[in-house]
Design a protein that fits this description.
single chain, alpha+beta, Rossmann fold, 8-stranded mixed beta sheet, about 40% helix, about 20% strand, binds histidyl-adenosine monophosphate
């Protein structure tokens, strides 16, 4: 048997109703906020991610599925959606049509991380981006959109954590403060962090190696080094969140795992999974669009991981139960043609309908109807054929009603729950 690739997963038919619910709810919520869908490809030139996410991030350094194709181009499966969405916006000059764009994308992302509970190598994100608006109200509204997705889905035990990671100006000052703090610990840091210390010391704060985590825990905080305009921006974001009653917690140690963030950063954390396995995360990026060859326009966005979101919702929720309007049971071979015609008529009338043509006994039909979650079963056997009727059984009340063949559709449409 050829097995699934490690860290990848199948979404089986029994799980797709829940999955579909998550996707539909996220889409409906984002569309109510004015976002429109964009569908970028799952593969891009590696350079896009290296430039967008940052050469020294774990994602780009260690986790990308990168290969040379037969034409010698270096390509990568996307580890996130933001860079690809922005590439499309710049390439198609979408900001010329509308100076403020609100876009969302849903699909698989790929990171070669160590698989564990809630950590996959292929996982799905709902990703939302707002481009061309640098107001703190837009930061708050973006966080509100993420919060509303969670609320509409009914996810429990989640907490919104927010921070400001400053702008390039205050970050430059902080970088020096951080380097000074890290210097005496250099011999203890992992090899990667020693390199990060030179080129991008903020990444040390995001390292997952235990001894680096310990050192990072006592590092000075960026939130204490914000310049006045970043501080004011952050205060305004918090005020707007309070206005609309979004509960949040300030988390001054959050730096996020991607390099493009400026100012507001946020994560949605599950009580049990903790921050290393956040359900969602995002933030503002005021220089990324320009960095990718576009105009000097700011942006903010977030992504929610569907697998992690799904973990917070019980599988046996009745909303995800398998259900079909009608199961049609031919009892005996003589009823096959009549049943085939009935099934076709019912489906054309808009009823969901299932029939099994090989089952022989009524008992096996009833078992199949139960498995399908049928609301009603139509039984057609020799007796029914002789009377040009069908027997309709209500699977909840167990009541059985004889109905003339040519009245079946109207009867079922009238009775449809
Ligand atoms: P991120 O924090 O890297 O942000 O990922 C967002 C979410 O994707 C995580 O909170 C998590 O739910 C899910 N996720 C990430 N890695 C895995 C994994 N290995 N297995 C399962 N789920 C995972 C971004 O990707 C940014 N692009 C978000 C953003 C959009 N920022 C601005 N705009």
């Amino acid at each position: 048997m050829i097995r699934l690739i490690k860290g990848f997963h199948d979404i089986l038919p029994e799980d797709t109703p829940k999955w579909d619910f998550l996707v539909r709810t996220a889409k409906a919520t984002l569309e109510a906020f004015g976002y429109r869908e964009i569908v970028p490809p799952i593969m891009e030139r590696t350079e896009l991610f290296a430039r967008g996410i940052g050469e020294l991030t774990d994602i780009v350094e260690k986790e990308m599925y990168t290969f040379e194709d037969k034409g010698g181009e270096t390509l990568s499966l996307r580890p996130e959606a933001t860079a690809g969405i922005l590439r499309a916006v710049v390439e198609h000059a979408l900001l010329r049509q509308d100076p403020i764009l609100k876009l969302y994308a849903i699909g698989p992302m790929f990171r070669r991380e160590r698989p564990s509970k809630g950590r996959f190598r292929q996982f799905f994100q709902v990703d939302a981006e707002v481009l061309g608006d640098d107001s703190p109200q837009t930061d708050a509204e973006t966080i509100l959109a993420a919060y509303c997705i969670m609320e509409n889905i009914g996810a429990q035990g989640l907490m919104m954590e927010i921070n400001s990671v400053g702008c390039p100006v205050c970050r430059a000052t902080y970088r020096e403060v951080l380097r000074n703090y890290l210097e005496p610990h250099l011999s203890v840091l992992c090899d990667d962090c020693r390199r990060r210390y030179e080129r991008n010391p903020l990444r040390v704060l995001d390292c997952k190696v235990d001894r680096c985590v310990e050192i990072a825990a006592k590092a000075p905080l960026i939130s204490n080094r914000l310049d006045e305009s970043c501080r004011e921006h952050f205060d305004a974001v918090k005020r707007s969140l309070e206005l609309v009653g979004v509960p949040f917690r300030e988390e001054p140690r959050m730096v996020r795992g991607l390099d493009y963030y400026t100012r507001t950063a946020f994560e949605i954390v599950h009580e049990e999974l903790g921050r290393s396995k956040a359900v969602g995360g995002g933030g503002r990026y005021d220089n990324l669009i320009k960095e990718l060859g576009g105009p000097e326009v700011s942006g903010i966005g977030f992504a929610i991981g569907l697998e992690r979101l799904s973990m917070g919702i019980p599988d046996d929720d009745p909303r995800f139960a398998r259900s079909i309007d009608v199961y049609v049971a031919p009892v005996g071979d003589n009823a096959l043609n009549a049943c085939f015609t009935v099934v076709n008529a019912l489906r054309r009338a808009g009823l969901s309908c299932e029939a099994r043509y090989t089952a022989k006994s009524l008992k096996s039909h009833m078992r199949a109807a139960d498995r399908c979650g049928a609301q009603r079963v139509i039984m057609i056997g020799e007796d029914e054929l002789a009377r040009n009727e069908a027997t309709v059984r209500d699977m909840t009340t167990k009541e059985q009603t004889p109905v003339k063949m040519d009245e079946l559709v109207n009867f079922l449409l009238g009775e449809k729950r």
